[in-house]
Amino acid sequence: MKYRALELQLNAGKVTPTFITQEQPKLQTDQVTIKVAYSDINHKDFLALNPKSGVLRHYPQIPGIDAAGVVVASNQAHLPLGQKVLITGFDLGISWPGGYAEYITVPAKWVVKLPTNLSLAMAMQYGTAGSTAALSVQALLAQALPKQTPLLITGATGGVGGWALAILKHLGYHHLTAVSRQAAATPYLTHLGAEQVITPDALKTIPAKPLQKQRFGGVIDAVGGDLLAAILPQVAYGGRIALSGNTGGNQLNTTTLPFILRHVQLIGIDSVYYPASQRQAVWQKLATSFKPTTTTLACTKIDFQDLAATLPTFNTNKPTGRYLIQF
Ligand SMILES: NC(=O)c1ccc[n+]([C@@H]2O[C@H](COP(=O)([O-])OP(=O)(O)OC[C@H]3O[C@@H](n4cnc5c(N)ncnc54)[C@H](OP(=O)(O)O)[C@@H]3O)[C@@H](O)[C@H]2O)c1
Q1: How confident is the model at residue 57 (pLDDT cuts 50, 70, 90)?
Q2: What would the pLDDT profile of 59-74 be if each residue is shown by its tens digit?
Q3: How much distance in Å is there from the Cα of 84 to the middle of ligand 1?
Q4: What is the Å distance from ligand 1's center to 221 Cα?
Q5: 127: Cβ below 6 Å to ligand 1?
Q6: What is the mean pLDDT of residues 117-133?
Q7: 55, 152, 223, 241: residue to mutate for ligand 1 pocket, most atoms within 8 A of CB
Q8: Which residues form the Enoyl reductase (ER) domain (predicted)?
Q9: What is the tens place of the pLDDT at every residue in 283-315?
Q10: How many angstroms does the Cα of residue 224 sit away from the middle of ligand 1?
Q11: Whose CA is nearest to atom 46 of ligand 1?
């Protein structure tokens, strides 16, 4: 059977998203085929348009690191026909044909069964961003974290930071400081749960000292770079930083003092190759205890047929919240 997919094609250094029609691959014994109902746009999907980003090693490629839908072909007893499922990360949309397609055929071990209490659409409103936020929150909660602890969340107008903010608020944390470069985002971030919203510049003091006032008992950082360097001296004794992102850059110029004098812990978060065996539990949390009940992220809905035009504009107006693709 033939199906439509969005392919990134590279010509003379320029990447163009182009719809193609292709035949479904033959199902291998360890694979399942899924009729995709929803996908989403993550920062990484947008970066795939830039050949210099290194996200894709070869073109043409069908992007889309996330997908949710229904199993339509399977040799796996635990994934019967009709089972609702989701996939985030692994090699999907990177070195394996991704979620921007009406059908995907993927290794069964990548597939998470959709928890009851979660719709396919909600699974993709979370997507990689939501699962990364959940892993980041888990990392902070792995040690006692009283509800009155002041917490800092960077990149909060985006997917990872936004979900982290909303989840922490839902869990009862109320001294939440969100960081945004956008003054106009304050009402939105307050709605998500921020007690205060500050700019990155407000965290950067001049001259920067290796140890400053201990302002934050925990940090969820989706930005990294200079902003992380500015945050480290302001983390309280024993505080944890869950670092997942690098929108602010890959370099980290800092000193050892926050680590060796204040027992600060910098914890790397990776959702892409997070063990398959532990994913069901994370998604169960996103469907239940972590699921915000009184608020949700801004979500822009895009029809799959409009994706070729929309994907290149993803960053133009500084993205807020999540982008859901409906098939
Ligand atoms: N480790 C993992 O497994 C994993 C998984 C998912 C995502 N990530 C990474 O996490 C980061 C966030 O992903 P996302 O999906 O949430 O992206 P997103 O939706 O595009 O949001 C990123 C946010 O970061 C802020 N930002 C962007 N550039 C910045 C800069 N130069 N300085 C300060 N803030 C900046 C922006 O907020 P303001 O405009 O409000 O300042 C933006 O809303 C990305 O680096 C992504 O690659 C990692």
Answers
A1: confident
A2: 999 999 999 999 999 9
A3: 29
A4: 9
A5: no
A6: 98
A7: 223
A8: 14-325
A9: 999 999 999 999 899 999 999 999 999 999 887
A10: 9
A11: 245
Instruction: For residue 306, report the distance from its CA to the centre of ligand 1, in Å.
Output: 24
Is residue 200 within 6 Å of ligand 1 at its C-beta?
yes
d(CA 147, CA 267): 20
155 lines ligand 1 (CB under 6 A): yes
Asked if residue 128 lies in contact with residue 43, where contact means CB atoms within 8 angstroms, the answer is no
Q: Is 111 exposed, middle or buried (0-12, 13-18, 19+ CB in 10 A)?
A: buried
Q: What is the dihedral of CA 170, 176, 177, 183, to 10 degrees?
A: 40
Nearest CA to ligand 1 atom 18: 158
Give residues with Cβ within 8 angstroms of 309, minimum separation 6: none
Helix (H, G, I), strand (E, B) or coil at 142: coil
Q: Which domains does the chain have, with CATH numbers?
A: 2-114+297-326 (3.90.180.10), 129-268 (3.40.50.720)
If phi > 0 it is left, if psi is from -120 to 50 it is alpha, else beta; for residue 225 that is left
Q: What size, in residues, is the chain?
A: 327
Cβ partners under 8 Å of residue 162, min gap 6: 129, 133, 156, 192, 297, 298, 321, 322
What is the whole-number distance in angstroms between the Cα of residue 157 and the centre of ligand 1? 8
> Quick check: CB of 42 below 6 Å from ligand 1?
yes
CA 321, CA 160: separation in Å to the nearest integer? Answer: 9
Whole-angstrom CA distances from 247 to 26, 57, 81, 147 are 38, 20, 39, 29
Whose CA is closest to atom 8 on ligand 1? Answer: 245
Q: Which residues contact 37 (CB under 8 A, 6 or more apart)?
A: 68, 69, 70, 120, 121, 326, 327
